[in-house]
Amino acid sequence: MAKRHMVISERLVQSLQLVAPGAALRDALDNIVRARTGALLVFADKGEVAPLISGGIRIDVELSPMILYELAKMDGAIILNRDGTRISHANVQLMPDPTIPSSETGTRHRTAERVAKQIDALVLSISAARDVVSLYIDGIRFVLEEIRVILVKANQALQTLEKYKSRLNQVSTSLSALEFEDAVTLYDVLSVVQRSEMMLRVAREIERYIIELGSEGRLIQMQLEELMVDVRDDRWAVIRDYLPDFADMSPDEVTAALGSLHAEDLLSLGKIGELLGYDPDVDALELHVSARGFRNASQDPPPAQGRDQQSGRRVRQARGHPERFEGGAGGHRGRRSGPRPRHQGRLSALARAQPPGALRLNAGLRGGPGRDGRPGGGTNEESGVFKVGDKVVYPHHGAGRILDICRRDVQGDLKEYMTIQILHNDMTVMVPIDAAERAGIRSVIDEVMVEEVVGVLRDDATLMPKNWNRRLKHNREKIKSGDIFELADVVRNLAIRDATKGLSTGEKQMFGRVKKILASELMYAKQMPQSDALEYLESLLSEICLRAECD
Questions:
Q1: Are the beta carbons of 79 and 114 closer than 8 angstroms?
Q2: pLDDT value at position 135?
């Protein structure tokens, strides 16, 4: 039998609670250990243990620590009922089946193991020479350790848990920030799932220590509860958000499979991804994934800025920050402090061209024009500016229609959410109304502004960073702004680069996505079917690329 077990059966848990500090039986055990008399205690009903008893004294008294201590001074075993509240026999000789296999060498311990197996009961063996208390149940030998030793182990485990919690907070905050940019990769998701499972495994180990500590483990229990708040629920929400549609298992089945994953496999993000239903050979850093919105619906909106998971740099959520970019053969570095001059004034025209309902939505979200003529700087203070049926744009998903506006209880605080149906990718997302400004949600343009967008598409390409990773970040910043002209700028630049120099894997995914996002808005603006809008955009890009190749 193994001495210690990481996985504890329910019966062993009940047995440990029976002998935990603070229980009457534990007082008796401590007295017996200190007196070095040794003991053999069997917890079974009279009918079960009767065939194994030879001789002894038949008594029937309520358990008392001092009575049990005095009875242990005799050589024989002591029989108690299963819940350890009454003593039925003392000083008895136990005669279990000698053919039952036993790994013990001492007479008392070998007898204890065989009796536990034969009648399926809890048996305690206390060594007189070594002050060791051994529990035998369910084929397990579990050795009780001194309280001070368990406390040291529990405190060390808590320190480990605090480090894991800090790391989990980092990757969770990063995931939240990236979700609002729609820039999440599979790597970001798997990192959160991995760290959550690691925390849960350490927590289970601490829970075992708390059971053994009994009344001495109250402070450990309080610290554990504080560290583990919402960890299990958040992990389940992340799995539900990113479980692929083609997965064979439900979120509950995936969480159960994670719990049984070998410790070495838990260190492999590929194994975790495979459990979720993704191809084990997929590049997690390159695969872009989108959330279903369950996690964001169950928590407060993420902070305005987080950290990029890969680089550790700050990920900006606010607008108007200057951007550096590279261009030219000599790697010249330029600086931009706002939109290109040709965009100036277009947003004012955009506001004039909006239908009354859309203008009200834009004003409610943005609070009026900002310093550069763009809407910005305001907050949404009333939900009346949103209506079911309004057509809006979620920058990283595309144009859609508000299906519903409802209130949800989030940790005791009522928050308003709007449910947006994104038509082009058959997705439904939930967005907190008070986070709509930060998410860049705006009204769909009308047909008057389409010619302005087409004009941007037909302009010359602008400079982008040479490094593909920086280009991705550069373009993500432009997409998340929610500005239709910045989106058109990204689509044109990627189309021209694809035709002349080629795109990286990540840029190809971005190019395909932004074309659909732009086409989804053109679909509403020009009041045409989705397929016709995409075909219209492709024809424009073909014309632009042909001109770029000729140049």
A1: no
A2: 92
B/e letters for 126-146, b = 16+ CB within 10 Å, e = fewer, are bbeeeeebbbbbbebbbebbe
What is the C-alpha to C-alpha distance for residues 196 and 230, in angstroms, rounded to an integer?
10
**Dihedral pair phi/psi, residue 314, rounded to 5°:** -65, 135
| Residue-by-residue DSSP string for 201-251 | HHHHHHHHHHHHHGGGGHHHHHHHHHHTTTHHHHHHHHHHHH--TT-SS-H
Query: 450-457 and 505-526 are packed helices; what angle lies between their axes, rounded to 10 degrees?
Result: 150
Please report, as a single letter, which amino acid is at residue 230.
D
What single string gives the DSSP state of each residue in 54-115?
ES-EEEEEE--HHHHHHHTTSSSEEEE-TTSSEEEEEEEEE---TTS-----SHHHHHHHHH
Structure confidence at residue 379 (pLDDT): 32
- Mean pLDDT of successive 10-residue stretches along the chain, which has 551 residues: 51 86 88 89 89 89 91 91 90 92 88 92 88 88 88 92 91 82 85 93 91 87 88 89 80 86 87 85 82 65 36 32 33 35 38 36 34 34 63 82 80 77 74 75 84 87 80 82 87 88 79 86 86 87 80 63
Q: Compute the C-alpha angle 137/14/231, nearest 5°.
A: 115
> What is the distance between the alpha carbons of residues 401 and 523, in angstroms, rounded to a whole number?
12
What is the reported pLDDT for 366?
32
Please name the amino acid found at residue 382.
E
Contact 49, 79 (CB under 8 A): yes
Angle CA 533–536–537, to nearest 5: 90
CA 405 to chain centre: 26
SS (H, E, C) 379-424: CCCCHHHCCCCCEEEECCCEEEEEEEEEEEEECCEEEEEEEEEECC
Distance CA 519, CA 537 (A): 7
Locus of tokens 């197996």: 117
Contact 68, 28 (CB under 8 A): yes
105 contacts: CB under 8 Å, gap ≥ 6: none
Phi, psi (rounded to 5 degrees) for 466: -75, -40
pTM over 0.70: no
Burial (CB count <10 Å: 0-12, 13-18, 19+), residue 280: exposed
Q: For residue 56, which of 70, 75, 43 has the smallest C-alpha distance? A: 75
8 Å CB contact between 317 and 440: no
The pLDDT, as a whole number, for residue 382 is 38
Q: What is the pLDDT of residue 497?
A: 87
Q: Which of 324, 373, 360 is nearest to 485 (CA)?
A: 373
Residues 6+ positions from 122 with CB-CB distance below 8 Å: 11, 15, 18, 42, 43, 44, 82, 116, 135, 136, 137
pLDDT at 96: 92
- Beta strand 86-94 with 77-80 is antiparallel
